[in-house]
Design a protein that fits this description.
The complex is a heterodimer of chains A (115) and B (116). With 115 residues, chain A is mainly beta. In chain A, 0% of the residues lie in helices and 52% in strands. In chain A, strands 2, 5, 6, 10, 11 and 12 form a six-stranded mixed beta sheet that branches. A four-stranded antiparallel beta sheet of chain A has the order 3-9-8-7, with no helix packed on it. A two-stranded antiparallel ribbon of chain A has the order 1-4. Chain A is globular and about 45 Å long. The N and C termini of chain A lie far apart (41 Å). Chain B has 116 residues and is mainly beta. Chain B is globular. Classes of the chains: A mainly beta (115), B mainly beta (116). The A-B interface holds A 31, 33, 35, 37, 42-47, 50, 52, 91, 93, 95, 97, 100-108 and B 33, 35, 41-45, 48, 55-56, 59, 89, 91, 93, 98-110, 112.
């Protein structure tokens, strides 16, 4: 069974600064995917970025990048040049690539961006 | 292309009543997942369905909860005889081929169930 751990209940960052949200995972399966989702106060779940376990390079999507360290089993989300609209809950999630799989979520990190 | 549609957005039920939550997946998506989110918690997997079939219901309580995804029409999550502990946000997600390599789930806006 897979497990996702997000140890930061809350993070604060000033506008225009970069911030790293931590995520560690645990699985014995060699093939898996790691996802980050954003949940603003309005409640919807917005997909941000994906990293495959066999990907050689760290994933990037605009201001989002994923710092993937396979040996440490970590998949931290880096948000560069924070904006006020980045204030939200951020969830790390994982799926296995074998058979029928589901997404397993961490408990989330609340990010607050101040002016 | 419309996203995942869930309704109602908010649902209030008294203890003992039934709650029916509906989910229409994105066009072309035949895989549907239901998740529950309690306050201050992450999303917990409940059930995974493909058209007319339940693939994995390991996260769904054995009693009072059921889910279906018929050949025609939306997926339905049904909670019978609701209790206060069922109060939560219920999210539906869909994908074209299941969660696997480079295949994220697309989520609806959720149904917030309140049991009084």
């Amino acid at each position: 069974a897979q497990k996702i751990t997000q140890t930061q209940p809350g993070m604060f960052v000033q506008e225009k600064e970069a911030v790293t949200l931590d995520c560690t995972y645990d699985t014995s399966d060699p093939s898996y995917g790691l996802f980050w989702y954003k949940q603003p106060s309005s409640g919807e779940m917005i997909f941000l970025i994906y990293q495959g376990s066999y990907d050689q390079q760290n994933a990037t999507e605009g201001r989002y990048s994923l710092n993937f360290q396979k040996a440490r089993k970590s998949a931290n989300l880096v948000i560069s040049a924070s904006q006020l609209g980045d204030s939200a809950m951020y969830f790390c999630a994982m799926s296995l690539n074998s058979g029928y799989s589901t997404l397993t979520f961490g408990k989330g990190t609340m990010l607050l961006v101040s002016p | 292309n419309a996203g995942v549609m869930q309704n109602p957005r908010h649902l209030v039920r008294r203890r003992g009543q039934e709650a029916r939550l509906r989910c229409s997946p994105m066009k072309g998506h035949s895989h549907v997942y239901w998740y529950r989110q309690l306050p201050e918690e992450g999303l917990k997997f409940m059930v995974y369905l493909q058209k007319e079939n339940i693939i994995d219901e390991s996260g769904m309580p054995k009693e009072r909860f059921s889910a279906e995804f018929p050949k025609e029409g939306p997926s339905i999550l049904r909670i019978q005889q609701v209790v206060r502990g069922d109060s939560a946000a219920y999210f539906c997600a869909s994908s074209p081929r299941g969660v696997s390599y480079n295949s994220p789930l697309h989520f609806g806006n959720g149904t917030r169930l309140t049991v009084t």
